[in-house]
Specification:
By secondary structure, the protein is α/β, with parallel strands linked by helices. It has 15 helices and 13 strands. It has two domains: 2-172 and 385-398, Glycogen Phosphorylase B (Rossmann fold), CATH 3.40.50; 175-382, Rossmann fold. 43% of the residues lie in helices and 14% in strands. The strands form two sheets. A seven-stranded mixed β-sheet has the order 9-8-7-10-11-13-12, with helices on both faces. A six-stranded parallel β-sheet has the order 3-2-1-4-5-6, sandwiched between helices. Strand 5 (110-112), helix 4 (124-140) and strand 6 (143-144) form a beta-alpha-beta unit. Helix 2 packs across helix 3 and helix 8 (212-224) crosses helix 13. The chain is globular. The relative contact order is 0.12.
Amino acid sequence: MRPVLMIVNSLSHGGAERTVSELSISLSGRFDVTVLVNSREETTYPYQGTLLSIGLPADADKTKLLYQMKLLAARVRMIRRWKKKHPDGVSVSFSENAALASILAGSANTVLSVRISLENGKSGALRRLFMPIYGLICRKAGYLAPVSEEIALELMNKFRIPAQKIRVLPNGADTVYIRKRGAEPMTPDEEILAGDGPFAVTMGRLVPLKGMGHLIRAFSIVRDAGEPCRLLILGKGPEQRELEKLACGLGLEEQVRFCGFRENPHRLMSRAAAAVLPSLCEGYSNMILESLALGLPVISTDHPTGAKEILDPGAPILPHLSEGSTDAPYGILVPMSPGRGLDPSEPLSPQEREMGIQILRVLRDSDLNKKYRGAALSRGDSLSLPRAAAAWGSFLESIQ
């Protein structure tokens, strides 16, 4: 079997991390899979194959330049050692640091999985520094595997990457596994969180790019309309305290519940009335895929990238919505809101208001809700993990 090295920060708490977990299991029968992580301590997702750890402290501040430099140097050493042992192997990187390390260790048979839009929230001096370096990494990599067609267009337009170096490989959802986990009985604390009435659910790391502040503000529309519905936020992150203050400032402390990271989020998700994704930037959202797999009506911002490709396939990718909404075949698209949306004293933006209106519409219109539940299950099946894994397998086998 051909050796494949997957380089990722951890096997815990993230979209790329979950993808590596799923691919390691799905591809283990066709490839000799090794997963390289920063710390063995941060392993909550299942995997198959060999697990290698750099051995960095799990509680280190990963944003510090010194940490990133140590990580880069250690990765180069371990990747070089692996490539020497497996000269016909393929290394697949799931972050910029990992890609740079793989290239420095020897650029032959290197793949960079590009998992988020180049419009990823970096601005000013940081963006001016980041983009040329990232462009160089992309040009030096043997192959690029963006998760969406829009990212592929960005790579070709911004960095002049030739199309023959690019293979679009979207994420997939393990629908059988997700539905099985969703059918499990709720735990006592989940029953408390779910309560007796309907609830909407969102999931993601609590950081500015996820747009959670805009969703909380939009949810005031639901409360003001007298709808007895709560919002469950699954995930944790550095923005949580500010988001809790926002909810209190809007008088939504009873409606908005912060549920933290859930080892099995699907038990709560499967019982939701709707799933809402307020992100300002994604790649190819795992939350949307998992919500579809569970048959949930989905309301998502039309962010770069992936949401339109998932919910409205065949529609022009650009431009993104700036006002109004779209009843797409597999969900509802709404425009992104500007800024962070953390000030409870500011009036709702038109985009936040539109999001709230569409949440309310899905909650109240039983025919619409039923329609999107059926459509979600169908779309979820078409974007299953076996199909995504098969595409990855064919791609890895084609690399010479």
